[in-house]
Amino acid sequence: MSIIGDVKTDSPVATTTETPSWMARHWQKVVALLLWVGLIGAFVWYTRANGLTLAEGVLDIILTMQTSPYGPLIYIVLYALRPLTFFSSVLLTIAGGFVFGPMWGVFYTVIASNISATVAYLVGRYFGKGMLDETGSDGFVQNWATRMRANSFITVLIMRFIFLPYDLVNYLAGFLRIRWLPFILATIIGSIPGTIAFVLLGAAASPTEIEQLFLTGQIPSLDVRVLMISFAMFAISMILSVIFKRRERSQQSISSEVAQTT
Fold it and tell me: How far is it, in rounded angstroms, from Cα 16 to Cα 209?
């Protein structure tokens, strides 16, 4: 009840709150989507205007990066767009070694690959909600999904060390909406051995071998030293995966024992 002057009213004061429109709530996603669509559209236009396939277009850009002062930026943007076109991360990592050499190739590829992983993670997070529920089947992906929910950092780290498909891990992490920080930290650490191995592979390749790699899939030849270092990186990655798997099992057994005693 309210009194206005000498008049009493029993009707409550109406309060209205306007619900934000869909655009107001999701404008960031729309802007990001338009940006990526524009970049992909520009690349598609470039390949068609020059009569190139997807692989030939990427190869043409990679060869341009060797002489362009914007080479690192072009490489990072190209790598970041890669998960949206399902282009091979291995090919671009090898190309990074060819263009920038072993040291800068690793540096730029670590930056580019983790931006790429974040892009795929965000796509999965925004558009994959509910695709893998907690009561799903006992299949391979579902088992890893359960592990990622229970122990995000260690599980993603192991998945990187054993070289599970790069984009599968990224999208899966987004689908499950696990926290970004443990995901990206595990990705940075777990991808380093493989990144070094493939960058060294590219650093030892000739222009003709890189062209054959993109057009026919033929792996460049290696000298013995590069081959040994690459093999060592893969071996280190496998060893680390075993170590972290054992650590994970140990933590799970300790947790189950604590649960039983309580």
Answer: 68
